[in-house]
Amino acid sequence: MSFSLSSLIPLLPEILLAAMACLVLVVDAFLSDERRAWSWFLSQASLVVALIVLWRVAGEGSLLAFDGQFVLDRLAGLLKAGVLVLALVAFSYSRPWLQERGVFRGEYFVLGLFAVLGMMILISAGSLLVLYLGLELMSLSLYAMVAFMRNDGRASEAAMKYFVLGAIASGMLLYGMSILYGVTGSLDLMEINRILLRAGQVDTAVLFAMAFIIAAIAFKLGAVPFHMWIPDVYQGSPTAVTLFIGSAPKLAAFAMVVRLLVEGLDTAQHQWRDMLMVLVVLSLLVGNLAAIAQTNIKRMLGYSTVSHIGFLLLGFVAGTGAGLAASLFYTLIYAIMALAAFGLIMALSRKGFESEELADFRGLNDRSPWLAGLMLLVMFSMAGVPLTAGFYAKLVVIEAIVEVDLVWLAVFAVVMSVIGAFYYLRVVKLMYFDKPIDEPVPARPVDVEVLLGGNALLVLLLGLMPGLLMTLCRQAVL
Amino acid sequence: MSMQTVFLLIPLASLAGAVLAGLFGRWLGRAGAHTVTILGVAVSFVLSLLVAKAMFLDGMAPWNGPVYTWLVTEGIRFEVGFLIDNLTTLMMVVVTFVSLMVHIYTIGYMHDDPGYIRFFSYISLFTFSMLMLVMSNNFMQLFFGWEAVGLVSYLLIGFYYKRESAIYANMKAFLVNRVGDFGFVLGIGLVLAYAGSLDYAEVFAAAPSFADRSIEILPGEPWSVMTAIGILLFIGVMGKSAQVPLHVWLPDSMEGPTPISALIHAATMVTAGIFMVARMSPLYEYSETALAFIMVIGAITAFFMGLIGIVQNDIKRVIAYSTLSQLGYMTTALGASAYSVAIFHLMTHAFFKALLFLAAGSVIIAMHHEQDMRRMGGLKKYMPITYWTALVGSLALIGFPGFSGFFSKDSIIEAVHASTLPVSGFAWLMVLLGVFVTALYTFRMFFLVFHGEERMDEHTRSHLHESPWVVTLPLVLLAIPSVFAGLLIDPIVVGDFFRGVISVAPEHEAVRELAEEWHGVGAFVEHGLMGPAFWLAMAGLFTAWFVYMRRPALADACARRCNLVYRILVNKYGFDDFNQAVFANGAVMLGRFLWRAGDVFLIDRLLVNGAAAVTGWLAQVTRHLQTGYLYHYGFAMILGLIGLLGWYVIV
After folding, report:
1. Residue B1 pLDDT > 70, yes or no?
2. Where along chain A do its domains lie?
3. Which residues in chain B are closer than 8 Å to A290, comparing Cβ atoms?
4. Is the complex ipTM more than 0.90?
5. Which residue in A213, A321, A414, B154 has the most C-beta neighbors within 10 A?
6. Residue A388, Cα to own-chain centre: how many angstroms?
């Protein structure tokens, strides 16, 4: 095994990000509070540079490094670019929120950068070990981010729950991985796949391992019954953190499913499709029903995430290439919608008024027609109203599921999305038809204003012209 | 300019007028709106005349072809296309001429109306729709035109949309026509099913191949396909051309402005059914049952609707019932396979009935929109032009020898007489007695309006004067063909004007007999003077004069003595009451039942609210699963894992 520096080229964005995260950490320590914006600026700059480097590095085919343990293929390229952009926007949304609450500190950005790094490694994982490394780097950073406002009791509670449950899930994952290693004698996902293929029949031990792995995946995604942390963490975390957790990590989780199940355990496809189907049914059912009973919009969006995860997994249940592309498309659209939704919640809040309760949205149209209009778009898209990206995303997954003759599942999903439409439309009703509350809408910095508008309008634009993104998704999963 | 362009321009010119006035009327203003629409219709008329010249005088061959393919599905083409032959050309000229007259007339009649521009847009749209209907070469476009004229009719009956009776009338027209159209569209469906095409020429060519086939509409009752098609299509005609029992909407349609009554509800739209049956003659000739059905319906309409005309006091309603009766005549002629005669009467009727309606409109203007004949009388000296033109119209209507109506109506009676259908005897009796009735109500109206004592109030009398030239000019222009159009009997009925257009089976050659006995117009008039029809008409005229001029008390006495008959006639045989009680109230009751049982109980309470309640309950349950305790969460995860393991590994 020879080693040359040029073999590190596929890792350049990650290396750069790691270096920059350390740099921000150091620089931040020497900055006075007035000049804290430099930390923010450096973080954003590192994301932008990483994006540019990624653009230059990623090629047509898949690039391998470390003897196949690190993979930069089209899927990885697309997902990493997505993660970087989402993080970039999330940092922008967070800045005024953090500043106003006096917690505009470097930790948030450093932890965020490390989380992004973890996600990127996870996305590019070619072996079980790298995958676990990325996952833990991401998770640990996120746990810390949740607890980042340490005086806030709810946040601490949420962080604790997240951490403990996350540890259990990690344990399950490791257990599954170790069995898999025991059966195949390899950590390399391609190699595992090859060995299992050669064996022909699917061993019970493999299924045993797979059940553990799926449990861990389900935890990361937040599929029922491994979803319990989601509402508590979404509600308990500072909104700036919820925003971050709610968007980019979903892309990483998607990659985790692809790497582990589609690439590593392809031989057991039949079995994992069945297992995922159970998760899908439960997620759609519990997510949508529980969301109806919520009064806190962050919590409601948490349950809505659970139901969206159900939809997202539908594509995997289909098991076809089209299904996979549909799932990828759904994931990206979902991340964009979640970013916009939490961004809007933050834009409406100020210190002492978090605008977290559904009741806080009453008569928003009278207070700010522009923000109400953007929220309307996002809610419509989440509910799957035609012309929005959410509709198209639902359409393609359901199409994929119908094509493999799982019509009952498609019907179930549609019925559930009808039930789900209720709580999204309730937000619209509150904004447009209820008497406004007496709470002025705070002013927003220009960058937030532009990004927020663009973010919400993108939901409409991608609904009208989904072709380009859909093509990218198809190419990525081929 | 190629002929095809001309054909296209004829309907489009009217459409352009309608669109301009309808959408941009606000900017065009009143004068602008009537200028563009009249120009549009005038272009249609002049071009129609050009086509007529080319067809009739220069011997141009009929033209049949598509101009636009809308869609093709499973080999069936849905097209816009034109079939221009003698029948079409005749209809085009009649339609555009009457329409042009009505357009001009409207300037005077609607002068003070706030809906002036809207009205012009509608009547131009109507002209377009009617032209599309008559020029069509396929059933799809026929249906389009059929519905489009119905739509405009609906809009115009309800033109005074703030008047409740107008809304009632247009809804009635709409609903009754739905019944007819139901049959019509089923008929078209049957044609499509058996002929596999919607194109007239292809359907007619395919007709012999399915003429002998039968269809079981009710189990165990085989019907000839042709009979089914014929009767279903004719049900559409009964709606559109107001035949018993679907005639009830036409008298009520008089709620619309008078120019519309003339154009749509007398001269053109209501004759669309007559035109359609004549167009479909190659199909109808295969079914004697359908023809007999048509003849009976027509004969009943011709006689019994005329009778109602005698007891009406509203001047427009008298003419409306007269129109019903005359449509009955045309239908009877169709039943006798005398298609050419029916079309001939359609044409003459279009002229003299439009004339009568417009004359009535002129009277109504002078009377300040008073329509009750009991408050008129002696108008002759105030309105000479209206008087003389109305006289021409009336004489034409009763079939006075020499006037156009004489030729067409006598031809019908002769054709029915010559028909060999089993029901022709009854039909002949009906149309013959109808002549007496026609003369009676026509001159009753004429005398009550123009002669006798002046029964209007002083204020109205002091303002009586002849209408402006835009009103009287169309009257005079319409009076001319009302007199002379009868002379066209030579080519149209006895000549071979419709050769290749209308087909008549050898056993139905009633018209041929007419032609064989044809010795010129003079001989026909002479023959008419001998026939019973003329004397019946004279008797009717005399009765009207005697009862309403000499002994005005006699009419009341008659009404009292024959109270039962009088009541039946005034109640219009109870059709309206029956419809109101059974269909309208029945539908309302059914609707209320479905609303209560289906909508409120089943859907609202059980399904909608029920589903919502269940969902809400489930939501609460689900919510309580989330306890907030970490160990519960962990336990759920373990349970999930065990589930996955258990389900797939152990089982």
Report:
1. no
2. 7-477
3. 619, 622-623, 625-626
4. no
5. A213
6. 20
